[in-house]
Amino acid sequence: MLSILKDKKRAIKGEGTMGTLAGEMAKWKKANGYKADKPKKKKKDPVPVKKEEFSRRELEEMMGVRNPTYSRRRGALRQR
Questions:
Q1: Of 6, 13, 18, 62, which sits 20 to 30 A from 72 (CA to CA)?
Q2: 71: which strand partners?
Q3: From residue 52, how far is each of 15, 24, 49, 59 by CA, in Å?
Q4: pLDDT per residue over 12-64, tens digit each?
């Protein structure tokens, strides 16, 4: 019974009741010595690198498709 009366007195005084979320956060920050973080710096966009574009023939040469091929015909090596 006494605890109920104490709770009512606290509620009348405004102790122990929840305020607004912003108010509660302000109280918590003040009680805990909270300091806000510094704003983070944004990273600059990297400089676009010019991509080298190859023709179909250049790609085939790099892959080795256009290398000469030899085969044996009648005992001799002949190019295809």
A1: 62
A2: 78
A3: 71, 59, 9, 12
A4: 555 555 678 988 988 888 888 887 778 888 888 888 888 889 999 999 988 88
